[in-house]
């Protein structure tokens, strides 16, 4: 499994703010930053007081003097402006991420994922933040559900934020990746719970279904590794393996039969991270793809002049991926998770 090199990132004495800082990604990012770096100020920005209290018990302020727990919502631009005073780097991880929840609460999804993204952009520019990396998802490429569509809109906003900031202003880029092994939103906790409860079979939506997989630590390292190479406007996509959901279920419970239950509304058979229409501005590096913004060729040279362009018509999809997880490698990822 590929390891993304985040050790070259210089974050000592930097002011860093993480929106959605008490989520799975935000918490692991904070743990990584305090273990590997010495930020001047590290702000955990989230709206859930209880999660902040729980997190502070594990990462107490008396032991981590740079930490700040800041109650706020990305829907509140004024609160973001206050939180971003003295901040150099923003990692935007706050979002409503559950597909059915977004379908049943569309306005709430738009307010957080789209209007919240606009607030982060404007507050970052107003505060003079140097760099912003926004987390995206494979569901944002050719979306078929509202969650994916809202994240695609957010991606477009962050890319356009570079023009709003001007030539010497805040730089915005996007990091897009697939399913996180063991995260609360993945199918793995469901399978494990059913197995622990003595289930006689595991439900599988479709035996052909595939997904991209990445561990939480890999996701954190990937996002951090984007910081030194971003020029503004890029969508960074890691090279990560695929696996069939049916094979994953077999990996967790080799002896249990599987029951096909059908694809749910808003769900894809296979996920896509780079669509064919993006191939014209996509380049490949050793460990990732870079979708450069359309304005690069018109307004500035590429930040990756030595990178090899992908062939026109290239698509990066979980079913045509050239890297696959076998049961042994998935078990290793599960142990890591």
Would you kindly provide a written description of the structure presented here, covering whatever features stand out?
With 337 residues, this protein is of the alpha/beta class. It has a domain at 15-177 and 216-239 and 272-316: Rossmann fold (3-Layer(aba) Sandwich). Helices cover 36% and strands 20% of the residues. It contains eleven helices and 17 strands. The strands form four sheets. It has a ten-stranded mixed sheet, sandwiched between helices. The protein has a three-stranded mixed sheet with strand order 7-9-11. A two-stranded parallel ribbon has the order 8-12. Helix 1 (24-36) packs across helix 8 (216-226), helix 3 (77-83) packs across helix 5 (106-127) and helix 5 packs parallel to helix 6 (146-165). The longest helix is centred in the middle third of the chain and has 22 residues, at 106-127. It is globular and about 55 Å long. The two termini are 13 Å apart.
């Amino acid at each position: 499994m590929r390891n993304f090199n985040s050790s070259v990132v210089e974050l000592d004495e930097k002011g860093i703010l993480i929106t959605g800082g008490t989520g799975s990604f935000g918490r692991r990012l904070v743990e990584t930053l305090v273990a590997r770096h010495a930020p001047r100020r590290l702000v955990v920005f989230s709206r859930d007081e209880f999660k902040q209290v729980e997190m502070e018990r594990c990462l107490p302020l008396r032991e981590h003097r740079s930490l700040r727990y800041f109650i706020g919502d990305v829907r509140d631009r004024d609160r973001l402006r206050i939180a971003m005073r003295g901040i150099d780097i923003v990692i935007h991880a706050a979002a409503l991420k559950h597909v059915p929840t977004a379908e049943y609460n569309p306005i709430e999804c738009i307010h957080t994922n789209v209007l919240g993204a606009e607030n982060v952009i404007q507050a970052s520019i107003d505060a003079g933040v140097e760099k912003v990396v926004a987390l995206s998802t494979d569901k944002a490429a050719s979306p078929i559900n509202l969650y994916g569509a809202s994240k695609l809109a957010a991606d477009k906003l962050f890319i356009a934020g570079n023009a709003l900031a001007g030539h010497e202003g805040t730089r915005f880029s996007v990091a897009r990746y697939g399913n996180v092994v063991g995260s609360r939103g993945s199918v793995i906790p469901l399978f494990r719970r059913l197995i622990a409860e003595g289930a006689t079979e595991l439900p599988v939506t479709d035996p052909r279904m595939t997904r991209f997989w990445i561990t939480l630590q890999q996701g954190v390292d990937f996002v951090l590794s984007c910081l030194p190479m971003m020029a503004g406007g890029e969508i960074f996509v890691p090279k990560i393996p695929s696996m069939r959901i049916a094979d994953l279920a077999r990996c967790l419970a080799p002896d249990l039969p599987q029951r096909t239950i059908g694809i749910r509304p808003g769900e894809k058979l296979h996920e896509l991270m780079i669509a064919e229409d993006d191939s014209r501005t996509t380049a490949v590096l050793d460990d990732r793809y870079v979708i450069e913004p359309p304005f690069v060729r018109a307004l500035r040279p590429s930040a990756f002049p030595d990178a090899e362009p992908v062939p026109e018509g290239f698509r990066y999809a979980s079913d045509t991926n050239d890297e696959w997880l076998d049961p042994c490698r998935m078990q290793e990822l599960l142990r890591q998770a």
